[in-house]
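Handout, page 2. Input:
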Amino acid sequence: MIKILLRISARYGTVAGILAFSLLVVMYYIGRHPLLTSPFLDFRILLFGIFIFFTLKEFRDYHQQGALYFFQAMLGGLSVVLLATIITSVLLWLFGNWEKEFVVSYVAQFTAYLKTFPKEDIDRIGKEIYERNLATLPATNIFGLTQTYFMQGIIIGFFVNIVLSVILRRQP
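Output:
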């Protein structure tokens, strides 16, 4: 049964990864840099939720006669998240190497954002930390951005997966 679960997860994870990358490209070309979105408002929360839900529901209803254990749900959901995040990250890395303005616009927009911080926020985080982050920003490259995107995707997907695994599990 694990092979069936992984096959279903691979199908949904692939589609989720391609769709996530497509959304990144669309956001970039409409003028909103996709990597500057707050992780709390990230579209991956909804995207992972939908694809994990349909993966687990299909496995539970069509292959398990309505039963789904928590470990199966976690395995299926994590497979979807891992595959989708790997696909999106690889495509993002390729896109960033092809579209040279991707990193340049990220650095420019993030620098402008950092310069809008009020003095009390700078004092709260520390002037040295603020200045160090501002100074290292021009050295940002696509590999670093891809790594950050990958780690955020894994973390977001993990928490979404836990919630859906608990909701969808059913024991005979």
